[in-house]
Amino acid sequence: MKHWQIERDENDLVWATLDRAGESSNVMSAEVLAEFRELLDQLDRSPPKGLIIRSGKTAGFIAGADIQEFTQLDSAEKGRVLIARGWDLFNRLAAVPYPTLSLVRGHCLGGGLELSLACRYLLAVDEPGTKFGLPEVMLGIFPGWGGMLRLPQRIGPTAALDLMLTGKTLDAKRAKRMGLADEAVPPRVMMAAARLLVQSGQPRRKLPLLQRLLNGPLKSIVANGARKQVAKKARPEHYPAPYAIIDLWAKHQGNALAAPENLDRIISSPTAKNLVRVFFLQERLKSFGKESAFKAKRVHVIGAGTMGGDIAAWCVLRGMTVSLQDQGLERIAPALKRAHTLFTRRLREPLRVREAFDRLIPDVSGAGVAHADVVIEAIFENVEAKHALFRALEPQMKPGAVLATNTSSLRLEDLRSVLKQPERLVGIHFFNPVAMMPLVEVVAAEGADPAMVQAACAFVRQIDKLPLPVKSMPGFLVNAVLAPYMLAAMRAVDAGVSAEAVDEAMLAFGMPMGPIELADTVGLDIALAAGKQLADGAEPPKCLLALVEKKQLGKKTGQGFYDWSSGKAKKVGAGGTAPADLAASLVKPLIDRTEKLVADGVVADADLADAGVIFGTGFAPFTGGPLKYRETAGQ
Ligand code: NAI
Q1: Does residue 443 share a domain with residue 394?
Q2: How far is the CA of 156 from the centre of ligand 1 (A)?
Q3: What is the CATH number of the domain that holds 512?
Q4: Please, where are the H alpha helices in 348-449?
């Protein structure tokens, strides 16, 4: 076989190792499945004492189905064939008379987890890379190879739906705790443990009675709850897949072949194709920085305010040692408090929280500069202040270290003029809130050192963000496309449309948050300043000026377009009527500006612009991005 290595040992156990030819990671392509069918044929002829499935890749177990194969689905019939291929095969695997075991080290996602669920035993290797999940929903599809049938049987329907509807993953310990994995063992004993477990005859852990009821006669209760949860986040006309998952589980035992109408809906909607496109765009962003061997260990952040404090905490969370500088300890203290909250939420275990916190070093004197591989400036948005700082920083920095600014609106060309090596300054522009926003713009001014730009991209990857290389222009990509959109939204308010109606129109379009609520969240003073800089000299909207004059600056002051309490905007229904084409007219300036920025070379091409706008603003991912949307919707 091309992709599988088969070995029968002295105990008559068959070890099937998937090592997909010519690839660094395993996916369940049509060929891989066809060979697996052949293997089962062989084993039918001479059944072993047990079958152990494992991966021959250091990169992990199995990353999922072959996404390229989805992109070629242009009819419901082809979709049916693809589903039947895995569904039938894994049903067959689940029914073989000999015990089977999936030995999982590294990522075990989508089709890989469905294969594992069809085995009698699942043995997880407890190391940081081991992750279990069914992320199909994120690509606008469903786990049709038995995941919707077997995951609820294994861990109960509530937990299973939670995983299938969000795409989130579990590590080895949690997989064990939830009953997905039978055991979680360290790598050094994994082979022996696999041998023992597959021959143990140990019965599978039974689901508790309540979970069995919820997965049987009480299914509708769980399904209704899940539908309500999903409806809060995704509209069925934009994202049909999560609704299909709930229906297929509740009404068809997870068998997508029994409900062709669900499949038709998914195949005929452009959502899945666009989400797959977004997935590949994300992979493309991830590839930036790969050319550079740059690896940061120590980071120094100056300015412990909204941005600097959160950037420092994020870098620590991703394994760096970070010194955080500000004008006094009292300015650093609030950032440390926020960091502690972030670590506690993300790392959970007190020991890991402590370790992380130990890597975040308050540094009023700036002693960390001399040791840092990356220095990030995030002080007040003021040229003179930044100049003074850069003058002091440059002579202290290590020779190959990256010097970066987080500025939103100042020209890099102006900022770097005080440096002896001006070509070393790059922009590493994070978005607020840092922990939530996946995109980071990596800004290159004219004549910037390409090695520094690449090192900056590599650093952004190291901290698990998506780098988007952009040229130095006011607003770069993301803020520059948001400005005319926000302006149009506020002009609509000036024209008498209620804030609620404007926001509702854009939510219906598919934005994660309406533009007016977004302005309130960012702060109306900041929105006004950004608008002045980026709106080509247009008059600021009257509604915005009036609020800023009254010092009603949005969320941070408790009042803005909305009244805010406990971090939430109080909305009073969609008051008044909005013009039918409101969403189209608001989104048009954003798309126009995106086109212009591509034409001006601020981003390298239209695909990257779509990626940047999706990951930087949350622009409705199911549309495939603003330019893709214009192409398909003709708007
Ligand atoms: P901020 O006002 O919350 O924090 C700035 C911090 O810098 C303050 O704690 C201040 O004490 C400190 N600082 C000022 N001068 C200093 C110096 N010479 N040495 C040490 N510390 C000094 O500001 P924010 O919002 O965090 O912005 C920082 C930078 O990030 C600005 O360049 C801004 O344009 C940019 N930015 C802001 C975003 C936002 O949403 N707030 C988003 C993206 C970028």
Answers
A1: yes
A2: 47
A3: 1.10.1040.50
A4: 350-358, 383-393, 412-415
Indicate whether 288 belongs to any domain.
no
Query: What CA–CA distance (Å, rounded) separates 628 from 620?
Result: 11
Residues 529-544 have pLDDT tens digits of 988 888 778 899 999 9
Annotated active-site residue 429? The verdict is: yes
The CA–CA distances, whole Å, from 48 to 42, 45, 51, 100, 541 equal: 10, 10, 7, 10, 75
243/241 Cα distance (integer angstroms): 5
Same domain, 36 and 119: yes
**Nearest alpha-carbon partner for 150 in 221, 215, 201:** 215
Q: Is the CB of 530 under 6 A from ligand 1?
A: no
Residue of 338, 377, 379 best suited for mutating to test ligand 1, as the one with most atoms within 8 Å of CB: 379
> What is the structure's pLDDT at 266?
87
379 in ligand 1 pocket by Cβ < 6 Å?
yes
> In this structure, are 88 and 208 located in the same domain?
yes
Task: Reply yes or no on whether the pLDDT at 601 is more than 80.
Answer: yes
Å from CA of 377 to ligand 1 middle: 8
Give me the helices (H) in 394-498, please: 412-415, 450-462, 478-494
Question: Can you tell me which atom of ligand 1 is nearest the CA of 379?
Answer: 7
Catalytic residue among 3, 107, 300, 429: 429
Q: Is the pLDDT of residue 250 over 90?
A: yes
Is the model's pLDDT at 623 over the cut of 80?
yes
* DSSP H helices in 348-431: 350-358, 383-393, 412-415
Q: Quote the number of domains for the chain.
A: 3
Other C-beta atoms closer than 10 Å to the C-beta of 540 total 16
C-alpha dihedral, 317 to 323 to 324 to 327, nearest 10°: 170
